[in-house]
Amino acid sequence: MSRFWNKKTRELKPYIAGEQPKQKERIIKLNTNENPYPPSPLIKPFLEDFDTGELQKYPELTCMELRKEIAYFYGVSEENVFCGNGSDEVLALAFQAFFENGASALPLSLCDISYSFYPVYLQMYDIPSKPIPLREDFSTDIEPFLEPSGGVVLANPNAPTAMAESKEDIIRVIESQPDRVVLIDEAYAGFGVESIAPLVKKYDNLLVVGTASKSRSLAGLRVGWAIGSPELIEGLRRVRDSFNSYPVDTLAMKIASISFRDVDTYKKNCEKIVKTREKTVKELEKMGFFVLPSEANFIFASPKRVGAEFLYKKLKEKGILIRYFPKPRISDFLRITIGSDVQMEIFLDSVSVILAENGGSV
């Protein structure tokens, strides 16, 4: 611990990202929910012809080209769109802009098991919260989210469980909090969930956050967005412009815009992942796993005949990375990103061998 850290820095419990190995040639990465397929093929010729002289200047301040493409895709206006460096930055700005801090503030409602960056934001910005326990089957009990609160944050689909809420339930939450922001994190919505972004035209308290990292295969680009009423978008701008008014770089804006125009690649990649996901679930269930229903590009599965941590370590020895969370209620589960068909076949074969060698079911 550094003697130069302030009190806030000493108390912080930072988000722990999935392992990014330096040796990648013989590693199968199923631990960070990256897309196994390349992004739009239209990106490569653009990069080959790109005038590097454009990098001498600051990026276009309003990110208008990308905002227009996102707005067209979701059926909203560019005035409803905000862009940032990945959805994590957009989320951080939203927590600062819309949720009150201090002991006297109404607590923010969110699931007790969800994206593990949310508690970091809560601690960083001193926002009180009311974690609402998921049911025993890991589904969300919507009723507590209808009670008075300082705002609501829901990931849909949820992470790490991969389960999704119905549009009807989300609307109930939005309508129950007319004077508070309801933030819906749609990082994984491309794999089975209909986006509720168009509802921002009806509900001025709704903010929908998305990312190009998952369904658009652009995790290395770091582009995220929020869709909401002009009032909410202006709130995000005010916070952003208080410390960095040029967050999205020129190349990122142009490449993400190309990706949004190439709807065919987006749909084909998502469809391939969904098909592989369903096949993987069936094979794991045959091996005795309990697998939660998934609407994401990953699954949350519990190996019933060997320990989750044991299987995680054994797979790592074989060069296959998945995610294990040593936390209450979910320590018997593993989060497994859906890779390509070839990657998942290697994963399933390795699981079968490990189970056979350790008295498990095959």
Question: How would you explain this protein's 3D organization?
Answer:
With 362 residues, the protein is an alpha/beta fold. The chain has 2 domains: 7-39 and 264-357, Aspartate Aminotransferase, domain 1 (Alpha-Beta Complex), CATH 3.90.1150; 51-263, Aspartate Aminotransferase, domain 2 (3-Layer(aba) Sandwich), CATH 3.40.640. The protein has 11 helices and 13 strands. The strands form 3 sheets. It has a 7-stranded mixed β-sheet with strand order 2-8-7-6-5-3-4, sandwiched between helices. The chain has a 4-stranded antiparallel β-sheet with strand order 9-10-13-12, with helices on one face. Helix 3 runs parallel beside helix 8 (250-261). It starts with 6 loop residues before the first helix and ends in a 5-residue tail after the last helix.
